[in-house]
Amino acid sequence: MATVFEMIINGEIPSTRLYEDESCIVILDINPISKGHALVISRKCYPTFTDVPMETLSHMMEIARKVDQKQREVLKAEGTNIMINNSPASGQEVPHLHIHVIPRFSGDGKTPAFPKGKYEDGEISRYGEMLSL
Ligand code: AMP
């Protein structure tokens, strides 16, 4: 079944498009975390960050940076969250790669509430060894 983003790319459902080229499009998120929240979406449907070719991903990051610059210029955003939800366990709802670019302002209270934890004694070095690249 086509994802909602494929339907947008094919013009089957409306969107507010900010940019498009041969490998990605940029639209406004319909339920913004803050107004101007944009999505950089790959034209081809790669389900996750893990699936996308590096060349496409780096191009999408370049476009995300342009969106960040525009949000800073026009909306006077003081910062942005550049975010990819990668697989359903992380909160990804639409299985079609996209980068969120969310305008942020000091004191806007929108920081995601990721509760921070602690390592037990010696655990951090074990994780360090397991995850060392
Ligand atoms: P994620 O949870 O990372 O998969 O994010 C999916 C995003 O797509 C959510 O922030 C939704 O608000 C957004 N979204 C879903 N449907 C539409 C749509 N028709 N137009 C624009 N944004 C959408």
Can you describe this structure in just a few lines?
By secondary structure, the protein is α+β, with helices and mostly antiparallel strands. It has three helices and five strands. It has helices at residues 4-9, 54-74, 123-131, and strands at residues 17-20, 24-28, 38-42, 79-83, 98-104.
What characteristics describe this protein?
single chain, 133 residues, alpha+beta, HIT family, subunit A, five-stranded antiparallel sheet, 3 helices, globular, binds adenosine monophosphate
Descriptive overview:
The structure is a single chain. By secondary structure, the chain is an alpha+beta fold. The protein has one domain: HIT family, subunit A (2-Layer Sandwich). 27% of the residues lie in helices and 20% in strands. It has three helices and five strands, in the order αβββαββα. The protein has a five-stranded antiparallel β-sheet, with helices on one face. β1 and β2 form a beta hairpin. The termini are far apart. The site of adenosine monophosphate (AMP) has 12 residues, from loops. Adenosine monophosphate (AMP) binds next to loops.
Q: Can you count the beta strands?
A: 5
Instruction: Enumerate how many helices there are, as a single number.
Output: 3
Ions, cofactors, ligands: which are bound? Answer: adenosine monophosphate
Q: Into how many domains do the coordinates divide? A: 1
Strand share of the residues? Answer: 15-25%
Structural class: alpha+beta
Q: What is the CATH C-level name?
A: Alpha Beta
Overall outline: globular
CATH superfamily membership: HIT-like
Question: CATH topology, anyone?
Answer: HIT family, subunit A
Radius of gyration from the alpha-carbon trace, in angstroms: 17 Å
The percent range for helix content is: 25-40%
Largest sheet: 5 strands, antiparallel
The ordered H/E elements are HEEEHEEH
**What CATH architecture would you give?**
2-Layer Sandwich
The overall pLDDT average reads 96
